[in-house]
């Protein structure tokens, strides 16, 4: 875990791929645990420390994650996420090449739900309930831009406008360009290339930049990280 930014109210860190943002009861250390340990050590606090979880990255995804160090920090960040004023940038290596050099994807949340909820494992009652939830008029929206490509893969820059469950993974797969290493949503095309991917705990998706306002003033903080070095093995 690397600390990118820290003030009295907010801390930004880089989550490694394969690490949960928040614990799931398995006993494995999560990013949340790591940040709390860091704060305890840095500020010599013997007891529990406050840490507000305001958003998550999927376990196989690496990149920038924000936490609130105080209730004010967590509240201000949560408000920005709700209002979609936080700007997030992702990069992904996908299988194949898009037909266009840039584009936008806008879908009803029901289409996202049918992939993301794992419908093959649902009972009839659970399926009916999930379909009812999927009828809401919320949408999942993102824009993307082709950075470069070769004969197998493409590097995309992605700007999500909404933050639905597994949105980027599902929408790129729907577009016909599944994320490299993502067997969950990549179906046969991604699985064909799965053996060539270097790490079964990660996929080629990274949260590479984020912009947000401070908790106590209107100053905007812009944070950015480099693409993972191992990605050079697949596209240069």
UniProtKB/TrEMBL annotation:
Keywords: Isomerase. Residues 9-173 form the Pseudouridine synthase RsuA/RluA-like domain. GO terms for biological process: pseudouridine synthesis; RNA processing. One of its GO terms (molecular function) is RNA binding. CDD domains: PseudoU_synth_RluA_like. InterPro entries: PsdUridine_synth_cat_dom_sf, PsdUridine_synth_RsuA/RluA, RluA_PseudoU_synthase. Belongs to the pseudouridine synthase RluA family. This is Pseudouridine synthase RsuA/RluA-like domain-containing protein.
